[in-house]
Mg-dependent DNase
Amino acid sequence: MDSGKSAGHTPDIAAVVRNETSSNTSGKQLRFVDIGINLGDPVFRGEYHGKQSHPDDLDAVIQRARNVGCRKMMVTGSDLKESLHAVNIAKQYAGLSYATVGVHPCSAKHFDEYPDGPSALLTAIKELANEGKEAGYVVAFGEIGLDYDRLFLTPKDQQLKYFRAQLEIAVEVQLPLFLHSRAAGEDFERLLSAKLRQLPKKGLVHSFTGTMEEMRRLIDLGLDVGVNGCSLKTEENIEVVRAIPLERLQIETDGPWCEMRPSHASAKYLKDAPALPKAVKKEKWTEGLMVKGRNEPATIRHVAYVIANIKEIPVQEVCAAAWNNSIRMFGLGEQR
């Protein structure tokens, strides 16, 4: 799997990528899908740790994303409340934003804490996913999965139980998966392999930080891999990203987290990337500027430039492949 080439290479996708690459030359703006952005987080409304530090600037965040060519965004749902929030943002920015619906493994304890019992919460999630899919706002089921790095938030037995239960719902609703896996590869892959045959569009493991071997196993299962700043921190991460086949690559920011920093291995691959808008501390917020430490979708092009330089291919090729992979899997109002 070298620089996007593999034994499982898909000729039709390759042809589309070449066509898209050629149409994105001659100064035409690159276009992006941010497949993982937490626009429901209060920091995008100016609220940090329960304190209002500056005015709500979500509209400005969205406009900066548009200015760099981010034409589609997938707003992540992490529990029932945040999934509802994601759907409402998708409605507010219709045609640009879409939602995922699901309960994150670190929030899986919510099922047993739900006032009407776990079955009622599962039903509510299923109904929201179904209604959102029919209305065109919900494009994926997630963020679901396993996280054994943070068992202090939800124990393993609850994570496993409700990952299984939510996979059943995803199959019923027939939505591609938006997946989370941390230090849980064996259980994660075992549970998925039993269900992916029933999901034609499979899904994506987002914010991937795993090993080369894990990446290859996930691709063998038919899954795509989402790359953001957290996927590019170390030299080992860089080697894994270099080996991800282009036809299985999607890109994201996972804002307001996962920003790329000068101390990361990714820094040396940013030499030819366009500058980001100026950023200031939240206490010095100024209209039109970014906020330091708050990652936002306008940084998506830096992810693309790093990947292009790692793979030693034109950034247009990375953007075209990622765009087509995201549209193929999630539709996003562009399904051919």
User: Anything to note?
Assistant: Confidence is low (pLDDT under 50) at residues 1-27. The first helix runs from residue 11 to 23. The first strand starts at residue 32 and ends at 37. The chain has one domain: 11-330.
